Amino acid sequence: MIDKKTGWEYRVVEVKRVARVTRGGKRFKIRAVVIAGNRKGKVGIGIEKGIDVSEAVNKALNSAIKNSIEVPIKEGTIPCQVEGKVSSAKVLIKPAKQGRGVIAGGTVRLVLELSGIENAVAKILGATKNPLTNALSAVEALKKLSKYIKIREKGNVNQ
Question: Which among 69, 92, 115 is the end of a domain?
């Protein structure tokens, strides 16, 4: 879906009902996980709670846009192989040749497509099937990628 205000495309990954136990009983809220990207090199993940689903999704979308990262894209793919790990989720992302497409599963595919990467190969190496931690590890890998580019621009890496 595309947000009309910002022009960013987003996907709702997960909607859960969570409870907080108080003296008077349980208080329920809705937690939404949203991945948002502009398909021009920016992507982010938002995790927010709300009274109902629409409020939680809107808050998560705003959070994803606010916490977005810049992804370096070189000829439709990433410049080098990178790996990210969050909790027990581990993701490996490799560059691919032109015309190959995004070969990835689950939420890693969403992160790569919404960031604007057209050709890449990704593999979930971790022991978890949790879509949130897999998406977070993919974003962590892309963060490392931007650090590699900054180091290369300074001239510390010979390539």
Answer: 69
